[in-house]
Design brief:
With 224 residues, this protein is an alpha/beta fold. It is 45% helix and 25% strand. The strands form two sheets. The protein has a four-stranded mixed β-sheet with strand order 1-6-7-5. The chain has a four-stranded mixed β-sheet with strand order 4-3-2-8.
């Protein structure tokens, strides 16, 4: 340009704009300039992987325990071949709460980086980093009658319960347990009717199965 002052002025302006743009892009890329953390929370009803059971499985991955995932199904995926698993990521935290819950649920709380408004989205949209994953917390809430086991423990439990020796021992111990319960009840109330004795028998059978299962699970969990 003939007017050097104007030429130098425009040059410095473009250089300044270039530097500012570069700084803003770097700030967006590494400092998430123009973005904010947004939480999204959704709750799903879950089902056990094994139909007819109340079992929440944990699959152990790696050695630190931070990569472990939980395996489950939802009513929508109940008939699919592969069950659903939680995300494998260091920034994913899984929490299991056991209590008097009417239904088994999973609440996913996901945090992502999102642009504050359309202006910042227009400026930095080329970076393709909108809705960038930050972290996730998965909170499982299951009833006290649910079992929470690793896939290895569940396999050992199933194998043990199917063994003939275990079934024979259960039958023998169960019969003795029920007989003792009925005898004690008869001593307390010698005039018990047949229906009352039947009720005591059913309660004793249920109690024995629960105690035997709890004992077996404890044995399996204590194994290294």
């Amino acid at each position: 340009m003939k007017n050097k002052k104007v030429g130098y002025g425009l040059s410095f302006t473009f250089i300044a704009l270039f530097i500012i743009s570069l700084v803003l892009l770097v700030s967006n890329e590494y400092g998430h300039f123009g973005m904010q953390k947004v939480d999204d929370e959704k709750t799903y009803q879950i089902q056990s992987v094994q139909k007819g059971s109340k079992l929440l499985l944990k699959k152990e991955l790696g050695t630190s325990g931070k990569e472990d995932v939980y395996v489950y199904r939802t009513p929508e995926t109940a008939n699919k071949k592969k069950p659903t698993t939680t995300k494998v990521d260091y920034n994913v935290k899984n929490v299991v709460k056991t209590g008097n819950y009417s239904a088994a649920t999973l609440t996913k709380k996901t945090t992502r980086w999102e642009y504050k408004n359309d202006f910042y989205s227009f400026l930095f949209g080329i970076s393709d980093n909108n809705k960038e994953f930050v972290k996730q917390t998965n909170t499982f809430k299951v009833g006290k009658d649910w079992l929470v086991l690793t896939t290895t423990q569940a396999s050992q439990l199933q194998k043990k319960m199917k063994s003939k020796s275990f079934q024979a021992q259960m039958k023998q111990d169960g019969a003795a347990y029920v007989k003792a319960a009925v005898t004690k009840a008869m001593q307390t109330n010698p005039s018990m009717s047949a229906d009352q004795q039947k009720q005591v028998t059913q309660q004793a059978e249920k109690a024995f199965k629960a105690e035997a299962q709890a004992k077996l699970i404890q044995e399996i969990k204590s194994q290294k």
